[in-house]
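Write out the 3D structure for:
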Amino acid sequence: MEKKPVKVRLVGRNGRNYNIQFPYLHIPVTVNETLYRRMLKSSDYQFDSGVEKFKEQGVSN
């Protein structure tokens, strides 16, 4: 059985920390920059289109 990626959404940034909204949690999870970049590259997570807005602002790269 193939695992489907978890659909998450980047909701904000505070310094070098990122707030990620998971579909089954009411409160966003704060992760550091290293973990955020790993999540972007991982096939376990599918980021909502909102991440494109942050990429344009130079947040994720």
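The chain has a mean pLDDT of 86.
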